[in-house]
Specification:
The chain is α+β, with helices and mostly antiparallel strands. It is built from 15 helices and 16 strands. The protein has three domains: about 300 residues, no CATH class; about 110 residues, no CATH class; about 60 residues, Arc Repressor Mutant, subunit A (Orthogonal Bundle). The model has no long low-confidence stretch (mean pLDDT about 95). Bound molecules: adenosine-5'-diphosphate (ADP), magnesium ion and zinc ion (ZN).
């Protein structure tokens, strides 16, 4: 039995994404990932007495850009607030965040699950600073005898994007998150390196009896950093809550953590409320007035976003599936557009990119960002197929060769003698030999077994190392077999 037989899940996600600035939100320290512990720090981000924050304008630019990409309203007036709590990774004992007047609100992203689409609402998005990182001497907090703290990440700008509780299945949650991350990546507001923790999710989930209108009590699972973790965690947590409800007990509203190794969620603490944080306006920063010219200037810098790109690719003749795959990766989508400039046959380009080229990149552990085959080289190779200079089969070899040597396709074809054989005289000679060597197939074909022709074509291709022009081979074979 699964929870879905009796209950419906309701889920809303808070997504924290690192904004792609060079320096931190309130000081000039670098935001670069890694580095020797506590080297990307200064008195401001360490919260030493007497220092004052200065807001990084680029943080606001990127927050506006993200808001526009997510169909949000951009506030005309916005301010920072202090969220007070104590933890060793937070040197100031408060996080500078935004409370009642966030920079963005009321947006949405399209959620598509198996061809069905709906809007996933975004309640708000606000700017805040990241905290530091505890470093335990052992493998985990329980196995270590001491812990240190690395403040390199303290003060890195974040945008927290809070969704409406609109998701009703694990698939919808994943679809929402993938679309959200893709939009942020395309818009260039974050580098979205999930493996470096630049995107993190807090997942809120509750169950309610099927048909019920009211929401149930939710739990919040903090700090998930991959789609797989979100999926596994939700699959576990929904079943856990269902078991609690089935026993006639109540779900406790609490904050939980996902234990990747055990594959379970564990209780961390009962849920904190806003009043626990004693929010108050940040006295060291002036509020911001965002005039509409500023917003329009940022809007003008928005690139084509994934949904628009998918529609455009469908308009070029790609299926929804193909358009989805190509746009799922920003670099791949850019690569596609570049090849199309020189060779505008969408289907053919998509096939080569999704098929042979992706396979080569996977095998070589590379990505479209650093693809050794330049877009013009793939386009040139496709033109050579069209002109009959190489066959589609030989092209696969040519592509491998471009991939490993970086040479242009024309040079490779010439060097390796891969030019297609279109000389009828030469082909006739080879074909006569093939027929003489395969009397049984010849007899089969003449006796009505059409399939034998395919075998004979194969033998000719083999004899020419795939270089024979297939149409010519077919034509000559048929003539000779009459
Ligand atoms: P908090 O600030 O305490 O985390 P919010 O009201 O801002 O609480 O909600 C946080 C997230 O929880 C939002 O994404 C929201 O959509 C989601 N949420 C709220 N209520 C429920 C519920 N009953 N079940 C599932 N998700 C919920
Ligand atoms: Mg929360
Ligand atoms: Zn600093």
């Amino acid at each position: 039995m699964s929870y879905q037989d009796k209950y419906e899940m309701v889920c809303g996600v808070e997504t924290h994404v690192e904004l792609a600035t060079k320096t931190k939100i309130f000081c000039g320290c670098t935001t670069e990932f890694g580095g020797e512990q506590n080297t990307h720090v200064c008195p401001v981000c360490l919260g030493l007495p007497g220092v004052l924050p200065v807001l990084n304008r680029e943080v606001v630019n990127l927050a506006i850009k993200a808001g526009l990409a997510l169909n949000c309203e951009i506030a005309e007036f916005t301010k920072f607030d202090r969220k007070n709590y104590y933890y060793p990774d937070l040197p100031k004992n408060y996080q500078t965040s935004q409370y009642d007047l966030p920079i963005c609100k009321k947006g949405w992203v399209e959620i598509e699950v198996i061809g069905k689409s709906k809007k996933g609402g975004i309640t708000r998005a606000h700017m805040e600073e990241d905290a530091g990182k505890l470093v335990h001497s052992g493998d985990s907090i329980t196995a270590s005898d001491s812990s240190g703290v690395d403040y390199n990440r303290t003060g890195v700008p974040l945008l927290e994007i809070v969704s409406e509780p609109d998701m009703r299945s694990v698939d919808e949650v994943i679809a929402y998150l993938q679309e959200l991350v893709q939009i942020l990546d395309y818009a260039g507001v974050s580098d979205c390196r999930m493996e470096q923790g630049s995107v993190r999710f807090d997942v809120n989930v509750s169950l309610r009896p099927l048909g019920s209108k009211d929401f149930g009590t939710r739990t919040e699972i903090k700090n998930l950093n991959s789609f797989t973790a979100v999926r596994r965690c939700l699959e576990y947590e929904t079943e856990r809550q269902a078991a609690v409800l089935d026993k006639g007990e109540k779900v406790i509203q609490e904050t939980r953590t996902w234990d990747e190794n055990q594959g379970v969620t564990l209780s961390l603490r009962t849920k904190e409320e806003a009043h626990d944080y004693r929010y108050f306006p940040e006295p060291d920063l002036v509020p911001l007035k965002i005039d509409r010219d500023w917003v329009e200037r940022i809007r003008a810098t928005l690139p084509e976003l994934p949904a628009a790109k998918r529609e455009r690719l469908k308009g070029l003749g790609l299926s929804a599936y193909e358009a989805g795959i190509i746009t799922s990766n920003k670099a791949m989508a850019g690569y596609f557009d570049q090849v199309m400039q020189k060779y505008p046959e969408a289907k053919v380009v998509a096939n080569w990119i999704m098929g042979d080229l992706s396979a080569l990149l996977n095998a070589g552990n590379q990505s479209f960002e650093d693809c050794p085959v330049k877009p013009y080289q793939l386009a040139d190779m496709l033109l050579m197929i069209d002109k009959g200079e190489i066959s589609g089969k030989i092209a696969k070899t040519v592509l491998e060769e471009i991939y490993s040597s970086g040479k242009d396709p024309a040079a490779i074809v010439k060097e390796k003698g891969l030019v297609q054989i279109k000389d009828e005289g030469a082909l006739e000679k080879i074909i006569s030999e093939v027929l003489a060597n395969n009397p049984k197939s010849v007899a089969d074909y003449r006796g009505g077994k059409e399939k034998a022709l395919g075998f004979l074509v194969g033998q000719v291709m083999k004899a020419t190392q795939g270089k024979a022009n297939p149409e010519l081979v077919n034509k000559i074979l048929k003539e000779k077999l009459k």
